[in-house]
Design a protein that fits this description.
The complex is a heterodimer. Chain A has helices spanning 9-23, 26-40, 42-64, 69-84, 86-113, 117-121. By secondary structure, chain A is mainly alpha-helical. The two termini of chain B are 36 Å apart. Chains A and B meet through α1, α2, α5 and α6 of A and α1, α2, α6 and α7 of B.
């Protein structure tokens, strides 16, 4: 059964206030800025696309038992370039910081309730 | 204030964000769905017979875990497991607890959806640890 309740005004207002405050938190703003900067950088986006393609190529080769050293070296080179790209590293750092921040907010909420809010609110089941 | 490429955003202090989180939790705690869940949880914990039946079911399930993984549970054990499961679910306190839990989950999912919509990212997924690593 999918139970989809109508939210009462009081809790809706509290959720809207929390959401709006979160979007104006420093770590959230920095994350969005890093995301925009990454998306605007053609070289960084190209590296990420190339990484996805290289990983897919290697997965396919692994499935066929035909992985060649050149492909592994190409993947390694790409990973090194990605780790050296300032837009990608900044985005990754900001995302990690935002995740830690949101986890802390969820911990605050959950400690007051005595249940883990994020676990209850999550749609997907495990794996 | 942080200067972005296209806009300026007034940064909200962390204390304000935490207060909003506190207010959100307080409002959630006052919701009928949460109160029902707390009451149902208490009723279940006070129902010794239901807890005993739950434990019997879990013990049987645990004893068969390795066989269940390879689909080698014999019919007698399977029947006993189902019987124990039915006995556990026959308690009013268990049914009330499961119903209250389902309602609370639906309620929290709606709230999570609202937060995700505002943030532009999956809030529950972003702030919970995946069991998949």
């Amino acid at each position: 059964m999918n139970y989809r309740p109508i939210l009462q005004p009081q809790i809706t207002e509290a959720a809207l206030k929390l959401g709006q405050n979160l979007t104006c938190a420093e770590l959230f703003v920095r994350f969005r800025q890093a995301e925009h900067a990454l998306n605007d950088d053609v070289a960084a986006c190209g590296l990420l696309t190339a990484l996805t393609q290289a990983q897919a190529k290697i997965r396919k080769a692994q499935a066929n038992g035909s992985v060649i050293p050149e492909d592994l070296q190409a993947l390694s080179d790409l990973q090194a370039q990605i780790q050296a790209n300032p837009f990608i590293t900044d985005y990754t750092t900001c995302k990690q910081e935002l995740t830690a921040f949101l986890q802390g907010i969820n911990t605050d909420i959950s400690q007051l309730l005595g249940v883990n809010f994020a676990i209850l609110a999550k749609h997907s089941t495990c794996c | 204030m942080i200067n972005g490429a296209t806009e300026e955003i007034e940064i909200v202090p962390i204390t304000v964000v935490k207060q909003a989180a506190h207010d959100f939790a307080a409002a959630l705690a006052e919701a009928q769905q949460f109160k029902n869940y707390e009451q149902a949880t208490l009723s279940f914990h006070l129902d010794e017979s239901a807890k005993k039946d739950m434990q019997a079911y879990r013990n049987k399930q645990q004893s068969l875990r390795s066989l269940m993984k390879i689909n080698e549970v014999n019919p007698a054990d399977q029947a006993e497991l189902e019987h124990l499961h039915d006995a556990w679910l026959a308690h009013d306190s268990v049914l009330e607890y499961l119903e209250a839990q389902e309602e609370l989950i639906g309620f929290c999912q709606s709230l999570g959806d609202l937060l995700s919509e505002i943030l532009g990212l999956d809030f529950p997924a972003a702030c919970s640890t995946s069991c998949c690593g």
